[in-house]
Design a protein that fits this description.
alpha/beta; seven-stranded mixed beta sheet; four-stranded mixed beta sheet; 16 helices; 15 strands; 15% strand
Length: 446
């Protein structure tokens, strides 16, 4: 798996030309593609039979491990019974069953579920629900949405607008109007090499008060944050930060949305990060671990008072003119129900909480290696930041990614660093393999 240099003209590998890959340096990848042919448990397998430890849980989603037999059976059985049913003016039992199971897991007061097909769709749905809620309450002037710098909320126009990643926003010009952003909470000088919630930074929640004073509360519909920002580098909330956001939102009648597409379903040792931090938002977006990544599905979990505000007018009225062809798809619902079974039967949330300290200790053992400027861990999430090479952004993280792959480990790049998010079934032997591969790879970096 040797990577050709970028300045050499090399044609795409045979059979790779037509697929325009997402979030991928397509020309570089197609010179020397990395292909997985099958997966089982903690491992991917290449077409040539090489075994690769999955330290990413796919893309933060395969929490119960690959090809879990209970989930596979459920999807197979469902495909033979009911392959598709519309969700507009019709229904099927599994969608209602999955919704009930989800609200039983959710924090108190959250008792409605709107199904989508991805985290991106869940975010855009939550933003629309927030706007519709205030309109139904006679406060249609509340149209402003508040996100956060270094936030990632998917790739819909709403999610990009409230997101705070410049590289994701720049190519697309005008996005949603009436959007503002809180500052991110990361300060390397104050919080480097932290494990769990940093003590510094809770005061940054007060910036929401500044935005209220700037725009007036009567114009603000919702605030959306990731409890732990994942894709932009595992940015862990300072002590008290999320609780203070909740207080400010309550004070000014603003809805609070937690984007838990990554953190839901055990990543932090709880069903939801809202439970971990003991803060209940008005909506939770989720996806990924909802179906163990087996079938695309997302959801918005909604506080009952928000739902009831829209349940007005004639019985024949469509209260929320929004939805998707595949909302509550039967195969996705079957996968979701089976995945929740596995989480409960195998105690995977509790298992993640129990092994997280060993995971953190192992990752932090890399402190002091060349080029490492920070390490952050919480639950089964970790980030390692490298000192960037001037004029070559991301060069060290890409080199680390390739070197780890040569040692049978798949990791994920994130700017000038890497992020780790293994399946919740990880064992100590897997942690040891991961850390040895990382150590060897980092020691080779220029």
């Amino acid at each position: 798996m040797n990577s050709p240099t970028d300045d050499v003209a090399v044609p795409a590998a045979e059979g790779t030309r037509a697929y325009w890959m997402p979030f991928t340096a397509n020309r570089r990848f197609k010179r020397d593609p990395i292909l997985f042919e099958r997966a089982q448990g903690m491992y991917y397998y290449t077409p040539t039979g090489e075994k690769v430890l999955d330290a990413m849980a796919g893309l933060w989603c395969v929490n119960a491990g690959h090809a879990h037999p209970h989930i596979v059976r459920a999807i197979t059985k469902q495909a033979g019974e009911l392959d598709y049913a519309p969700s507009f003016q019709y229904g099927h039992p599994r969608a209602f069953e999955l919704a009930e199971r989800l609200v039983a897991l959710a924090p108190p007061g959250i008792d409605q579920v709107f199904f989508t097909n991805s985290g991106s769709e869940a975010v855009d749905t939550a933003l629309k629900i927030a706007l519709a809620y205030h309109h139904a309450k006679g406060q249609g002037g509340r149209t402003r949405l508040i996100g956060r710098e270094r936030g990632y909320h998917g790739v819909g126009f709403g999610g990009i607008s409230v997101g705070g990643h410049a590289g994701h926003r720049k190519p697309f010009g005008n996005l949603l109007a009436s959007v503002d952003h809180l500052p991110h909470t990361y300060n390397r000088a104050e919080t480097a090499f932290s494990e769990g919630e940093p003590a510094w930074g809770g005061h940054l929640a007060e910036d929401l008060v500044r935005l209220v004073q700037l725009h007036d509360a009567s114009t603000i519909a919702a605030v959306i944050v990731e409890p732990v920002a994942g894709s932009t580098g595992v940015l862990i909330p300072p002590t008290g930060y999320l609780r203070r956001l909740r207080e400010i939102c309550d004070q000014y009648g603003i809805l609070l949305i937690f984007d838990e597409v990554i953190t839901a379903f055990g990543r932090l040792g709880h069903a939801f990060a809202a439970d971990k931090f003991n803060v209940v938002p008005d909506m939770i977006t989720c996806a990924k671990g909802l179906t163990n990544g087996c079938v695309p599905m997302g959801a918005v979990l909604v506080r009952g008072s928000v739902y009831e505000a829209l349940m007005q007018g004639p019985l024949s009225a469509i209260e929320l003119p929004h939805g998707y062809t595949y909302s509550g798809h039967p195969l996705a619902c079957a996968a979701g129900l089976a995945t929740l079974d596995v989480y409960a039967q195998e105690g995977l949330f509790e298992r993640a909480a129990a092994i997280a300290p060993a995971f953190a200790q192992a990752v932090h053992s890399l402190k002091g290696l060349p080029h490492i400027v920070d390490i952050r861990c919480i639950g089964l999430m970790a980030a390692i930041d490298f000192e960037p090479i001037p004029g070559k952004p991301g060069a060290r993280s890409y080199a680390c990614h390739r070197a780890c792959l040569e040692r049978g480990v798949a990791i994920r790049m994130a700017g000038d660093g890497i992020v780790l998010s293994p399946p919740l079934i990880i064992e100590r032997e897997h942690i040891e393999h991961l850390v040895v591969a990382l150590k060897q790879a980092i020691e080779k970096l220029d």
